[in-house]
Amino acid sequence: MVWRLAKARAGQIRRVVVAAAMTAALLLLASQPPASAAEPIKVGFSMAMTGGVAQNGKQLLIALQLWRDDVNAKGGLLGRPVELVHYDDQSNPSNVPGIYTKLISVDKVDLILGPYATNMVAAAMPVIMENNKTTITILGVGVNRHFNYSRYFSMVPVGPEGVKAFSKGFFELAAAQQPKPQTVAILAADAEFATTSADGARENAAAYGFKIVYDKSYPPPTTDFAPTVRAIQAANPDLVFVAAYPPDSVGIVRAAHEIGLTPKMFGGTMIGLLITPIKVQLGPILDGVVIMESFVPAPTFDFPGLADVLKRYRAAAAGEKIDPFGYGFVPFGYATGQILAQAVEATKSLDQNTLADYMHTHSFQTVAGDIAFAKDGEWAKPRIVFTQFQNVAPNDIEQFADGGKQPILWPPQYKTGDMIYPYAAARK
Questions:
Q1: Residue 83 CA, distance from chain mean position
Q2: Please, where are the H alpha helices in 177-245?
Q3: pLDDT tens-digit profile of 192-202?
Q4: Among 15, 116, 195, 221, which lies 20 to 30 A Cα-Cα from 163?
Q5: How far is CA 115 from the centre of its chain?
């Protein structure tokens, strides 16, 4: 009898132990979220939300958020959702190294993008290189010529000509005029992008046989450009090439209008003039200005998927006091995400070497067109265009929706209109 009771009790104990173990296991499983929710693929970057280039940064952030949402709606990458981890660099290069250090060391992001703009890209590169990360930077010009880093890729259509691509069209158009103009003034902000653009302008000026009669830079905080424009006027150049950021672009165009600067050609890489609210702000005083652009509303730029992305961008941008159209920046932001996603899915990997090797050897279909990278991480083929403001009306934002007020002058394969020359003729 005692033996039977002991055996029964032992069986009860075993059942209790087994039940307790199963309960503990179930509780442990219940406390764990699904693997896809617990382990997102983190994509880190800095983006200008405040400061001089915030107008552009805000457009790019919306573009990347649209890309993230689209990827996640299709099941994420490698079966995991994508999470964006980003910080405001305040348009200040000195903030960028700390942000990328935090993204890599503290946030432990899986993938790196950006940053946006030449100044910030240059500041980020030492941190990115030290940590052996692959990155696709956004609209940074000629940065890798200083670093020669094999895991660097650039979302800007300058192609193999590098810094010269940002001014080649300007000088080629000038050289085609009869009689050919002879002299040029170059004005640039004393900051990475502008000085890089000015370097290319000097090379092109020499290649096309122009004499430089004025070549100056100004500190980025400059707000009064009247003395500078008067100095340019005193040099009496035939051409004026300007490399400037958004606030500077406004100040220079206003000063040129007020002082009556009338060279035969005026323009350059004036980033502020890519932003629609600034175009509306300046209105008719833009007439005749010739600028570099990376993306324009034109039939030749209507790539698959672009119209839908821009439509959704416009809905997201409504009321945000940013460019309502997004032509100059949104395609590049969304395409950056597309390239990253295509590389991850094709290689089934987050390994930095594997991704870089794939990007170097494959082409990508994006809303910004088909893109392939050269050995230095720049686009294999250039696609910079030059446009001219013509017959701009005051206080009319919708006039910039279709590109009619800015026909493409160069290169010939994208041309949609003829240049009004000289500059004074466009201002009548």
A1: 20
A2: 192-207, 226-235
A3: 899 999 999 99
A4: 221
A5: 8
